[in-house]
Design brief:
about 475 residues, alpha/beta, 4-stranded parallel beta sheet, 4-stranded antiparallel beta sheet, 15 helices, globular, binds zinc ion
């Protein structure tokens, strides 16, 4: 039997995962800065680390999972000005959007989900320890980390201090001893929220909160620290500096997921709202979106397109159909779970090689389908079904798991299928009308759909639709 190996960004090696405490895993994931609704790029890290958490639990570990909420930040303050409401109303609103997205995509809730604003005491303590140890200094109401006092700075991102650009918080540059020093704490500006500290009133820098909260909930040393690739520098480099400079061993493994890209570039807000989780789940079911995001290797970029999303959904439905047909054939004797094939286990243990694990899953479904096509033997069909459901569960996409069944019970799922069929019929009528150049009839189909809240969009890949009840 293989054992788990994980790629560690700090050593650039895929190495054996040995937990610090037998049978237990502690994992910290940088969560959302709650200043906008999540798009699928934001939520990918939630899904990737949920698959890791599930695999650790399947492997018998007791997992303590801490995912923070950054609820105070420059971007939140800017959004509050844009939206004309208090910063705390903005933060709460978008935190709820993230909670909804994690939940609808079947992400297991974290063991603890601490907010930055609830941990100022811990941050002040950490800053005091850093100042006492000579690694930080207060300057005119700001507090900075003295990067040159920590020779290992740059080791995670493999950079030398002398090659570093300024840490970006440039408005305070005149207060810094060195341009690469970064802010732990920012002094209050008029009209901005602030908390009192021994060095003056102000608010936390982003990096400080993660060190403070990881230490509080997971202790001075823990097993896995996760996040997106874009957090390696400066965020994770700075977390390491803050925690190791006071003598904490901090994370044993650094695990980073790749981005969702469009046209080869990191997803950006310029794409508008079409890739918000809320919009994408109007085109495919949440379980299909989760399958799409989980099916790539977590260290591979996902080059997003609606075509590839729909293709992936078709692949998922094939497995889902097998599960439903096998349960029909087996009736009460259908098992809810079964044995994981050794090849699947080996793939997951090999740095979560989900594509290789999926190949095993698809092959097992193929053998299940041929069993169904003949005279199925209940024993062998039951074993295949149990094994398929166990594999789907590791990826969080067993269609009969409680979370998905609850979603279905709300009616969204089945209505969506019916709507899809009805719209497909109407689109066929429209295409036929266009073919015989009866444009009045074609337009009438489009208009009646629009009146019902179905918006048709003609694309190179054919007509697509979205639901927009507000426009009717
Ligand atoms: Zn963080």
């Amino acid at each position: 039997m293989s054992a788990l190996r994980l790629h560690d960004t700090a050593t650039r090696e895929t190495r054996d995962f040995v937990p610090l405490r037998e049978g237990q895993v502690s994992m910290y994931l940088c969560g959302a800065t709650v200043q906008a609704a999540p798009h699928i790029g934001h939520i990918r890290s939630g899904v990737c680390f949920d698959v890791l958490g599930r695999w650790l639990r399947t492997s018998g570990y007791d997992v303590t999972f801490c995912r923070n909420v950054t609820d105070i930040d420059d971007k939140i303050l800017a959004k509050a000005v844009d939206e004309g409401r208090p910063w705390w109303a903005v933060a709460t609103h978008y935190e709820r959007e993230f909670t909804w997205a994690y939940q609808i995509l079947g992400c297991t809730p974290p063991t603890v989900e601490p907010r930055a604003t609830g941990h100022v005491t811990e941050m002040i303590e950490l800053m005091q320890r850093l100042i006492d140890a000579g690694h930080a200094y207060a300057s005119d109401g700001d507090v900075y980390f003295d990067v040159r006092s920590f020779p290992a700075y740059g080791s995670l991102s493999r950079q030398k201090i002398d090659d570093l650009q300024s840490a970006g918080d440039s408005e305070g540059d005149h207060r810094k001893r060195d341009s690469s020093d970064f802010a732990l704490w920012k002094s209050a500006k008029p009209g901005e929220p602030s908390w009192p500290t021994p060095w003056g009133a102000g608010r936390p820098g982003w990096h400080l909160e993660c060190s403070a909260m990881a230490g509080k909930y997971l202790g001075p040393q823990f097993d896995i620290h996760g996040g997106g690739l874009d957090l390696i520098f400066p965020h994770h480099e700075n977390e390491i500096a803050q925690s190791k400079a006071v003598g904490d061993a901090f994370a044993n493994f650094w695990v980073h997921n790749a981005w969702v890209t469009t046209s080869g570039e990191k997803m950006s807000k310029s794409l508008g709202n079409s890739l918000l989780v809320r919009e994408v789940v109007k085109r495919v079911r949440p379980i299909e979106l989760r399958y799409y995001l989980a099916s790539a290797h977590y260290r591979s970029m996902i080059e997003f397109s609606f075509e590839s999303l729909e293709e992936s959904a078709v692949g998922f439905r094939r497995m889902e159909n097998f599960v439903r047909r096998a349960i029909e054939a087996l009736g009460d004797t259908a098992p809810a779970t079964g044995t994981l094939p050794p090849a699947f286990v080996d793939a997951m243990n090999d740095d979560l090689a989900v594509p290789a694990a999926l190949a095993v899953l698809h092959d097992t479904v193929t053998s299940g389908n041929s069993e169904l096509a003949g005279e199925p033997s209940p024993d062998s069909l039951g074993a295949i079904l149990g094994s398929v459901r166990a594999m789907l569960d590791v990826l969080g996409v067993d269609p009969l798991a409680d979370s998905w069944v609850d979603q279905q019970a709300s009616g969204d799922d089945e209505s969506r299928v019916v709507i899809e069929r009805l719209v497909a019929q109407q689109l066929r009528l429209r295409a036929e009308a266009r073919e015989r150049k009866d444009f009045a009839a074609a337009d009438a189909v489009r208009d009646s759909l629009r009146d019902a809240g179905v918006v048709i969009e003609d694309t190179a890949g054919g007509a697509r639709f979205t639901l927009d009840v507000g426009s009717s």
